[in-house]
Each structure stands twice: as structure tokens, then as C-alpha cells.
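Incident review: delayed structure delivery

Summary: a single-chain prediction request sat in the queue longer than the usual turnaround. Root cause was a stuck worker, restarted by the on-call engineer. No data loss occurred. The affected request and its eventual output are reproduced below so the record is complete for anyone auditing the incident later.

Affected input:
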Amino acid sequence: MSNEKDTASSVGQPAREGGATAAAQPGIRVDTASLKSSYCNVVSGNSTREEVVLSFGVNQDWDMGPQPREIQLHHRIILSPGAAKRLLDLMTKLVHDHEARHGEIK
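Output delivered after worker restart:
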């Protein structure tokens, strides 16, 4: 998947041509040529005073009962606390919008 447009990169800001958002400063271009996408259905995290660490992976035994046999971790994202707070705001908005369109997530 190369050169896909971002659907939303900033809280409440629609994507513009080339992946830039309305929150982007004038003169800044967002290059998505190297952007890669992957599916994850597992996330875990921890934090220190200086960073928030999120690990993403795949549980391929999701339909095999309550105890997964193996979870493959694929990505670890390390954020500053400020970036984590902005991610929280973005995720809250995205989930709210999703539930408004498709019903409550249980």
C-alpha cells in the first residue's frame, strides 16, 4: 500500500491531499511514500515518567478458546507523554465516531 492518503492524523482534522491535515503548519508536507500498514488485534502498554510504550501484535488463535497459544508482537511504538495524550484524544474521537455510525462496541 503505497502513497495512501491518511484518513485522519490529528484530532478532529480531516485529511487533505497528500496526507497533510488541517493542523499541519503552512509549508510542511507530509510524505507517505514509505508508509506501511499492518493488521493488529492485540495491544499492550506500559509507561515511565518520560515515555509511553505500546506493543502491537496478532493473536491468530482468537477463535480457539479463551487462552491464546501464541501472540506475535510486530510493532513497538514509543511516545512522549504529550504525544500519548494526543493519541488518547484521537482514539476517543475515532471510537465515538465509529459507534455513532455503527452502534456501540462491546
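Verification: The radius of gyration is 16 Å.
Action items: add queue-age alerting; document worker restart procedure.
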